[in-house]
Amino acid sequence: MSFAAKLKTKLAPSLFTEMDFFYEKVLFVLFAVICGGFFIFDTSLHRLFMYLALPICLGHLIHQRAWSQITFKYLFWAMFTYLGFSVLSLAWSADLDAERIFQKSKLLVFIPVFTLSFGLMCKKYDSCFKHLMSFMCAVASVSALFILFQYVREYADTEKLSRMVGFNRTSNEVQLGMYFSIATLAALLLPKDIMLFRDKVWVKYSFVFLFVLTVFLSGSRGPLLALSATIFLLMLLKKRFKTMFTVLMCVTVLGTTIWLSSSDTLSMQNRLDNGRLQIWTQAIEDVKEKLFLGYGVGAKLKYHVETKRKFYDTVLKWDVGHPHNLYLSTLVTVGFAGYVFFLVLAMTSALQGAFHAVVRAKFIPLAFVLFGGLVGFTDMGGYIINLSIEWLFFWIPIGLYIFTKPLSFTDFKKAYVKQ
Fold first, then answer.
1. Within 10 A of 299 (CB to CB), how many other CB atoms are there?
2. Which candidate, 93, 83, 96, places its Cα nearest to that of 290?
3. What confidence tens digit (pLDDT) does each residue in 129-184 have?
4. Cβ-contact 370, 230 below 8 angstroms
5. pTM recorded for the entire structure
6. Could you point out which of 35, 168, 316, 329 has its C-alpha 20 to 30 Å from the C-alpha of 49?
7. 105, 90 in Cβ contact below 8 A?
């Protein structure tokens, strides 16, 4: 069978022929562009496609009577409680201007409309999520090859190793590591019969190797270690995962240790005092000052850092706008009250993710949630943010679980024992 025939056989029934309405096909294409756009678009262009999708998403929810199809209303209300409280915190945010108020308050509409429509589409068409992740991995592979080519060319010119960076959303080393960690997890957990892999295991693991190499060359410790820990946790949940998972985790951990402990510009010793402890100390003081309600999501935070590079005997000074820790950022902005709402939402999502992974073998959303929660210990300024990788970590999985029948610990226990 020719490649074109395979494409028609494998893609057309799932993506277009089975869809009941033309607007669903348009919406699917926009979802695919947005998923792939994480790896190629700049922020403004990426969000433009999201803005184009929003009216169709809203029409989709109304036409499909989304409220009647929600099967996990507790999670739905937990999402709106956290979002609502966060937007309400604008009322006590200092030094607000109209633009800042609009930037944050619009997320009370943007996040649920987009993620609920995404979840409803994936509920109606079971293969939808797999195909979207497949397209995302395909775009990520092209992006990775281009970035690697640029990196090799730069090394040929300078004969000096440096931390690899990408372009647009991945122009920062840490962002590069985070984005391609997500791509690694998606490629690793997608079935090999998806069109992207052409039913060949070696193609599947070629994608995995390409993405891991990209993460590795970024030299970002947080994403690398979070990726390893995520894979380890997935192994605990699924007893029958192949040896590849173990090998990948070991290679990632050992590679991270060797790479970042070398005596060159990427040295762990040289980067050990990267200012995180100073930032976290200042953030803890902020938490103590406004423990219950926080400073509000509209507050303009500022943390000053001074750090000395061991091998260069220089002192660097700079300011950052958030605590570089998801949990501290949440405490600083919405206080203990909002933090409780956040924990309820996050823990419910993670538990349902674990239950669905074991009972129904749907591991990708859980992998995203786990990775986001783990990398949040060293990075990120919170989840109340316009379209960004945080939506893949948090909001999109929640949208999927809202339209999926919730499972109990008993269901999880029975399925886990039967493995």
1. 20
2. 93
3. 998 999 999 999 999 999 999 988 887 777 777 788 888 888 888 899 999 999 99
4. yes
5. 0.89
6. 329
7. yes
